[in-house]
Design goal:
With 245 residues, this protein is α+β, with helices and mostly antiparallel strands. It has a domain of 97 residues: 3-Layer(aba) Sandwich (Rossmann fold). The protein is 28% helix and 16% strand. It has four helices and eleven strands; from the N terminus they run βββββαβββαβββαα. The strands form four sheets. Strands 8, 9, 10 and 11 form a four-stranded mixed sheet that branches. It has a three-stranded antiparallel sheet with strand order 4-3-5, with no helix packed on it. Helix 2 runs antiparallel to helix 3. The two termini are 99 Å apart.
Length: 245
Amino acid sequence: MAIRIRCQDCRKKISIDEAFAGGMCRCPYCKALVYVDEATGGGAKGSGVSRPSVPVSRPAAPGQAAEPVVHSAGPSANEPVDTEHVPMARPVKIQGIITIILLVLLVFRVGGGIAVALLYLPGGQNGDVPPPPDRKATITQVPESGPGVVDIQVTTPIIYVLDGGSGMRSAFDSARLVTMHSVESLGGEKYNVLVSDEAEDKLLSPDFVPGGKKGVVTLTTFLQAVRPMGASDIPRSLTAALAKK
């Protein structure tokens, strides 16, 4: 059943199905949102046509017919007919509108975040990040000039600390190879080697010795006598190495 309400903005009458009582609708005239009161959607109101009254008078004399009573079934042809056309209003679902607004805000937020990220990339506004240099260091590599370990330049005198624990046999072999190539790059600069062991630290020499080719020979003789065993104490060995230097 359709109910009639009045728009609060343009003050015109509009119709809406009573099932939407308590919700919102949009005025077909001014497009404003109109609240449909729940009380408006109650039971149907009277049609405005009253029942004809029953005649209570009797004939004046017996046998005399009473005058017929003509009841009006509706408005006569001469009476103006209510031809007011009240358009139907479209119901508005507030939850759907709010959902659409939130989705639009989310799209703008994500788009703005992407734009800011592209704007502040290190490569410039277009995001052209230069690739990192292709540098693959190997354990046999040494700096092009001066003393160093692999591709890292170092200052002398230098003391090497190796892990002599039995659990790090493969690491000890790799460290030994790196140390030998590094000692060769020292030239006439001095160095020393400390191997961390479970019981005590093994030192190549009480004093620093020269590197280069002769230094590699001295180091090889020293490391051939070392047998990794037990558990090493690296913090203790580093403290001893710093004190030695």
